[in-house]
User: Which sequence fits this backbone?
């Protein structure tokens, strides 16, 4: 089971703060965000199992993801 925690504005896009997704095999991160229902362009950073991960990472069945939106401003 993959645990996905969304932050900030991504919670509004998905309607959920945390989701649990059953996986039997590895999938792409893009597949995860499709399941969660957020736009790829909205994602700014991914933390996978406590470490930064690229947006094209592979997600394994027991991973924990934390997804952050793009941040604007300065």
Assistant:
């Amino acid at each position: 089971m993959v645990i996905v925690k969304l932050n900030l504005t991504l919670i509004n896009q998905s309607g959920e703060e945390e989701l649990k997704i059953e996986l039997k095999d590895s999938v792409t991160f893009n597949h995860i965000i499709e399941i969660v229902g957020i736009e790829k362009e909205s994602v700014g950073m991914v933390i996978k199992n406590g470490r930064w991960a690229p947006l094209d990472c592979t997600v394994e069945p027991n991973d924990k993801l934390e997804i952050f939106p793009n941040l604007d401003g300065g």
